[in-house]
Amino acid sequence: MDRRTFFAFAAAAVLAAPEAHAMASDAAPSGVFQESFLVFPDEVRDAAKAGKRVIVFIEQEGCVYCQRMAEVTFADPQVRRLLESRFYMVALDLYGSRDTVWVDGRKRSEKALARHLEVRGTPTILLLDEHGAVLWRLVGYRAPREFLAVLEQTRG
């Protein structure tokens, strides 16, 4: 096969392949993640008024374990029911550039916030209390049963 043919096949394969760099939060069932302006003092306050707590899901493009959390753990009926009824879950991109305001009132990009929060790997899941303090920090994939157990321990 000559170079031109090889590159034509390679380009066709890339275009035909599913999006390899999609964010896991996009693959989660609808209703699990909330639309957010990423102003966490407001998110925490609004969640607390509704009797809920905020979960921050920090992910990155192409993260296999983030994808598995979205497709397996968050899709589990018991986990999904609990997330929708008692939590307000927001996704952040470890290397993202969207503006955020953390509970300390400081404005940072997603990437700068992840550094501030000392996120070292993905997925990282932060469960916040009604004042915005971190109750739990989970790093790495959690199967539905394990994740459900953590959620059950964080009753507001």
List the helices and strands and how they pair.
Blueprint: H1 3-16, H2 24-27, H3 40-49, E1 53-59, H4 64-73, H5 77-86, E2 87-93, E3 99-101, E4 107-109, H6 110-116, E5 124-128, E6 134-139, H7 144-153
Written description of the protein model:
- The chain is α+β, with helices and mostly antiparallel strands.
- The chain is 42% helix and 20% strand.
- It has a single domain (21-153), classed as Glutaredoxin, CATH 3.40.30.10.
- It has a four-stranded mixed sheet with strand order 2-1-5-6. A two-stranded antiparallel ribbon has the order 3-4.
- Strand 3 and strand 4 form a beta hairpin.
- 32% of the residues are buried.
- The model is unreliable at 5-20 (pLDDT under 50).
Short description:
The chain contains seven helices and six strands. It has 156 residues and is an alpha+beta fold. It has one domain: Glutaredoxin.
